[in-house]
Amino acid sequence: MGIASQSEPRMGESLRSIVGRYGTTTQTKTMKISDIIEIVAAEMDVDQDEITSKSRVQEVADARAVVQAIMRDRGWILSRIGTVFGTDHTTVMHNCRKIEQARAMIKAYDAAKTALTLSQSSD
Q1: Is the pLDDT assigned to residue 12 strictly greater than 60?
Q2: How many separate domains does the chain show?
Q3: What helix, strand, coil percent values describe the chain, rounded to 5?
Q4: Residue 95 exposed, middle or buried by CB count within 10 Å (0-12, 13-18, 19+)
Q5: Cβ atoms of residues 64 and 30 within 8 Å
């Protein structure tokens, strides 16, 4: 299986829209954690209560990582985010890095897709 077939179902449009839309912006700086959890849960089709649980189901863990990355983008320190989720700062740091990698993958995917579309249209 190629990269797209492995990553698109989990990282597809919902993660793309969440990560792209809720980076460091004034909108997210004024939002409550519960608002962020509600948005992420709806976008990723995960139960809100599961996001703050210890569930290790991949979809839930991904949603939790998105929420934590948004909190970090809002200026929260890693240890405080960890306290909210009942974990330590290194877990939060790992989740934030995972989202940064997803952002980079989405950017590279979009650039490659655009380049391929342009090269096909010039043929």
Answers
A1: no
A2: 1
A3: 75, 0, 25
A4: buried
A5: no
